[in-house]
Amino acid sequence: MIAQAVQMERTDERMSRMLYYNGTVITMEEPFCAQAVLTEDGVIRAVGTFEDVRAAAGEGEKCLVDLQGHTLMPGFIDPHSHFTACANATMQVDLGEAECFEDVIRLIREFIERENIPAGQWVRASGFDHNRLKEGRHPDRTVLDQAAPEHLLMVSHQSGHMGAFNSRALEALGVDGHTQPPQGGMIAVKDGEPTGYMEENAFLQYIQKAPMPSPEAFLEAYRKAQKLYASYGVTTVQEGMMSAPLGPLYQLLLHSGILELDLVAYLDMEAGDELKRQFAEHIGKYKDHMKIGGYKMFLDGSPQGRTAWLREPYLPVEEGAAGPAGETTAPSPDCGYPTLTDAAVKSNILRAERDQMQLLAHCNGDAACEQYLREYAAALAELPDHTPGDIRPVMIHAQLLGLDQLERVKGLGIIPSFFLAHVYHWGDIHLKNLGQKRAERISPAHSALEHGIRFTLHQDAPVIRPDMMETVWCAVNRMTRNGVILGTEERISVADALKAVTINGAYQYFEEDKKGSIAPGKLADFVILEQNPLEADPIDLRKIRVLATIKEGTCIYRADGQGTGEVR
Ligand SMILES: [Zn+2]
Ligand SMILES: [Zn+2]
Asked: Which of 116, 161, 472, 565 lies at a C-alpha separation of 20 to 30 Å from 553?
């Protein structure tokens, strides 16, 4: 039985003033901790000692919220994830637990059976990781044809950067042995026939050609995704890649009025102008909880898939553990490869700067980081009236960001958003792919701090769950699945890790005046944690449970399941 999260003394159903007391309040400001908070109409009015806050509250009616010794802190700000993909994931076969092709086949068959999907329909599966499959490679069409011979099947790798289609899907998409992959993509071909496996731009292009589920199904999926984020204490969430097909879905979502969390969307640059027209009222400011934050571009792939673009080659693949199936048409596969040309990267940067739209660049490998830094400097040289950092450009993932590159990151005003939980989930694979020295320097958070660089930490959901305490735990401990400590020197303090998912996240979104810390005038966006992370044993940080999540004064999640929104 779950202990009751917080005790609420309800004096008025429509009470808009709340006084939280009898717990620890982590403010993320000086002083770092307080005893009580007063909020009114979803905004923080006072914070401090219980006596001071009670005095500030005066005699007027208020709802007293007894924290029962638990800890209240600013709601977590998700600096990078994919809200729609999370919603999508709830409508897909989850292959996260698959350990061999047999599992992949079984899970897909069970899903089709359970959901009663007629033959000839599309079936989506996601979350497999070839590194964790016994076969050590990606499933191809022969495997997928066994799972669903009658359906059109597509299977996405956990990274979202690659995947495979079965024979019927390839046929429907018009892919054969002669199909040319788009720039920055790969279609695997063996003996003149496609194996079904694709990477990067090729994979992205073809998954977008598959039809979408019904609007009702999407709304239900959005509801589930929102609940998932709220259950981890997240109050601001990201749509990390809004492409043209997502336009109608977001219109649907906004129209339904179900959005409770704040959502910041980043536009696919190709569809940017059209989406800006469609969502004109949301550009740079929230309306109905959604705002357009800027643009998104991809510079490379993922290190665990060996498609992140590196300056030094990957270590050779071990005997018996094959890389991507089939032949590859990509240049120098040993270093991964770029997704965009230098000229395209620079022109995207120029466009973002001229439009004064924030730019998120996915860079995993150090060669991709280098391309971003080089082209950014070149672009700014053409824009003498622009100050570096004016659009707060973000480097998403920045996993292999080199120590020699940090000075330029700082100079250009770029915010790295590290995917630090990679150290836990794929750290053992990074050791094999990259060797000890490079693997230890993955996501160099401590070095970034030493350079005075403000950074954030993300989970890239649905790649992994939007569990922000896992991120914090990982940044503090840097422990792999096998229990290896990867990069002792890059560990950071709990306080610095918490900043990366609160106040720094707010800064990344240009919202530091409204969110990210507990101060009068800011929004009453809170998470209530079972234990104080500043006092917990560092190794237990990821076990700290979220008891409740509050968005602008309204409780939107309670661990004890006592409904939502009932506080007001
Ligand atoms: Zn990414
Ligand atoms: Zn992402």
From this structure: 472
